[in-house]
Amino acid sequence: MQEPHHDEILSPDFSNPLEYFSRNNFDNQSTPPLDTDDPWKAPTYDDRRPPEHPYTDSSTSSHGTTLDNESQQDGIHNVLRADKSRHYDPLHRSQLTASNVLSGVEVPEQYTTLFDAFSTTQRRLIDTSILESILGHANLRNDIQQEIMNLVVTPDKSHHFVTQSEFNTYQALVGCAQKNMDVSLETVYQNRHDLPIPVLATDIDGTPFDRMRYDHKEQHPFKTSFAYDKKSQSETVSRSTTSQATTDWTENDVACVEAEEQQQDVRRMEYHQEQAAMNTWLRHRDHITLSRTPAKEGFLLKHVNYEVESAKLGTKVLRRYSDYWWLWETLLKRYPFRTIPNVPPKRVGGRNNAFEEERRKGLERFINAVTSHPVLGRDEIVKAFLTHPSEMSHWRKYNSPSLDEEFVRIPHGIARYERLIPVDIVDRINQAKKRLPVSVQQYAQLCSTMEHIIKSKKALGSGFTLFSHSFNSLRELEKKCWLDDCEACPQLIKGYDSLAKSMQQAGSMLIKQAVVSSETILESLRKQRDALESFKELLERSDKLNLSVTETLLSSQMAKHKKGELQPCIAHDEPHHPTGTSPHPAARHAIAASVTGGVTLVKQRSIFVNYCLVSELSYIHKQQANVSAIYNHFVKNEIKHAKQWSEHWKSLEPYITEMPNAPQDFL
């Protein structure tokens, strides 16, 4: 790979880390993994599966000993492949179930063969009595058999079947038990790269167990099941005489499971669509640069104008600090449940060049954070802020945007939002609330430490420069030797010249590196700190705003939007009414209840708020890509500077060695 140019290293482009990684081919590099109970992780929709199907009949025949090592077959080593259709994070250990522990894993061929042998073609399910019979041929103790059944099926309900994913977990548990490993879902998860193959004894008639032809496949899986010893045979006969009512119940139950599986597919598809849309937006996000105009305007109270340039829109406009403050307040009202970055605080008096530059950097971080957000970046007010050619006060005079919150102004698909909310959203939010204050504090400390490093580099650079000036003064003083015929002093003065210039250059290099660090890694650390702090404020804000909302207030706010040209959103899922035919405001709540299945506006808003929090968690989690880019830039910058620093001093060495260094050289 071609080495990046020197200027690209010292002044890298931090606007788009995803593009940077793609351009510089960092695929072979890695960053430390996030903590396993990271609250920012994306939702895992296999967690929304219904409770596992229970185990009802626990008594089975068993041989009381395990197989010896010689009779065990070696497991086929399978490499865990990442399912290209799944992009969510690994499961929490506390969320492991028999149905999701092997999600995305390519199981051994023997697992699939055994499942195909026992399952029905139509239902793709296996009766739990089959599991009992298989355990009878696994040569495991009764207590281990019971433990495996309890892990795969749940004894608190009356279902009698397992799915293929649960059956795969069941086989893995049997294999682990035969290898004297711990019988637990954690063990299966840890060995998912190398799942053990269960070893099954031959049947009564001597036919190998894994080659038998199962006559039960053509029968209903809940009416009969194949048995392999007298005890399981009697249980099968008893179960096959179940009443027709029970058979009807299981038919309905299977239909419910199939419907739930379809819902899982819908959730997974919608989740991937959501993630793909956010990733696309982040890859093509805008980059805004701010520069101060040289002249101040105003008669009594002077102010600074900032030239705002959009790389994506190709526009340049002038904006004041008060325009940024107005934009921040407006976005807070329009999007109270989104991550709104902060603007630099107001200040009256005592504003020097250093303060103005820090304010400019803060405003630049603010507007870039706004345009990078997949929701805020599409807002009409933000677009006007970036494109309106005249002052914002002029635009505000002829445009009065609504300050109602997002839920009221815009129609939403509440049913879809509800499907995208993970079942453990409350736990994730609570984890975030505990973690965020510490994270913000640590990032503030990182910023403070980096500021100290930068100041130290500037001070060191100034020291080299001061040394050079003093050396030049000494050179002028010793330029003329006391002896007219001295040959060593002119050579010494020549070395002084080279050393003074080198010191001057070294000081400039250090100061330049400090400036680059201030504009790159320090600003990126501040950006990450601001993102976490704004998300922390979002969680605090959402708790307060949820307490003051009533059904009447929401209805009145939405009715106001119904009367005008704005988009209708009263029940979010209600049919569209032609202009002028919208029902009376008094009847809107009844319409909402009838269309949304009786879900009130307050409940719909609660679903919307949770959906926003889930989206913001995912958005903040994706900011981790910025962290990787920060330190990749920083390390490459330091390496480049170290090489330049070494080459600089090596270039001085010939001039120093030519200087006279023996007493006899001087008369």
Walkthrough of the structure:
This protein is 55% helix and 3% strand. It is mostly helical and 667 residues long. The protein folds into three domains: 49-268, no CATH class; 288-403, Phox-like domain (PX Domain, 2-Layer Sandwich); 427-657, Substrate Binding Domain Of Dnak, Chain:A, Domain 2 (Up-down Bundle). The strands form two sheets. The protein has a three-stranded antiparallel sheet with strand order 3-4-5. Strands 1-2 form a two-stranded antiparallel ribbon. Residues 1-12, 25-92, 203-249 and 563-597 have low confidence and may be disordered.
The number of helical segments is 22
Number of domains: 3
Poorly predicted spans:
1-12, 25-92, 203-249, 563-597
Number of strands: 5
* CATH architectural name of the largest domain: Up-down Bundle
Shape: flat
- The overall average pLDDT, rounded, is 74
Strand order of the largest sheet: 3-4-5
Largest sheet properties: 3 strands, antiparallel
* CATH structural fold name of the largest domain: Substrate Binding Domain Of Dnak, Chain:A, Domain 2
Q: Which class of secondary structure composition applies to the elements?
A: mainly alpha
CATH class of the largest domain: Mainly Alpha
The end-to-end distance, rounded to whole angstroms, is: 58 Å
The Cα radius of gyration reads 35 Å
Q: Please estimate the helix content.
A: 40-55%
Give the amount of beta strand, in percent.
under 5%
N-to-C order of helices and strands: HHHEHHEHHHHEEEHHHHHHHHHHHHH
